[in-house]
Hints:
3-stranded parallel sheet, FAD/NAD(P)-binding domain, alpha+beta
Amino acid sequence: MAYGLWLRAIFSHPSPQPGNLPHVTPILPKRHQLGLPLDQLILDQPPSAEAIEMDVLFVGAGPAGLAGAIELARLAKKDQEQGGGLPDLNIGVLEKAGALGEHSLSGAVVNPRAFRELFPELSDGDFPFKDPVKRESVYLLTAGKSVRIPTPPTMHNQGFYTASLCEIVRWLGAKAEELGVNVFTGFPAGALLVDGSTVKGRRSRWYATARSSLVMTIRPGLVNSVESESERLSPIQLNSG
Ligand SMILES: Cc1cc2nc3c(=O)[nH]c(=O)nc-3n(C[C@H](O)[C@H](O)[C@H](O)COP(=O)(O)OP(=O)(O)OC[C@H]3O[C@@H](n4cnc5c(N)ncnc54)[C@H](O)[C@@H]3O)c2cc1C
């Protein structure tokens, strides 16, 4: 159905009556949604002199950020071993959760392909998986009963493993740290620091209650910096973000 027709179908839907479908919140087209508060997210501010330098900073210690940091650390190491001339890279991963995996709360069925590619030296038994998928069934649920249907082609999980995403993230975090990656938990990235059109860094918002906050800055050439702001912020300011 064309987009316009689809919208008209939603808005012209009769008011819900008892026994009818529950109320559906209309989906607002993007042009009617509030804009991003860019003045809060992009700050035209220079890095501080107290910054701790890093070369590359990943925001978010989910599977993607950690896998990226691991791969980058390995590539840098390989380049050095082959005499490529790359200096030691200071790689950071910024995570808003208080501890790795705390914001990754899901059981999962995992395709092992990415793990095999990222850790070719390991076997499936080394990965943080539970059990291989042995059988699968898909059911259509109605108000009163369930009907088994053939598994749609995109939902086949044969060859995959059950796992806990939280455990996967912790395991990847440990692997990243073994490679020298700095993982900063409890620090949400709050804003980009820019100079004109150049991103210079990131500033974290205060998130938990008993940790210092961080300012991350990026210099040209992928150099990031981290500084502690805890000395300058009172506990009340810290808690109010
Ligand atoms: C209910 C549910 C079930 C799922 N089941 C499966 C499954 O069975 N199999 C499967 O393969 N996939 C599944 N997925 C998808 C899978 O979880 C995602 O594809 C995967 O987690 C994406 O990884 P990511 O690293 O890109 O993002 P995320 O896992 O979302 O990680 C992002 C991280 O960034 C952090 N973060 C966010 N904003 C900031 C910030 N401003 N500053 C600092 N840190 C920040 C978050 O706390 C989080 O730790 C499921 C997802 C959901 C929601």
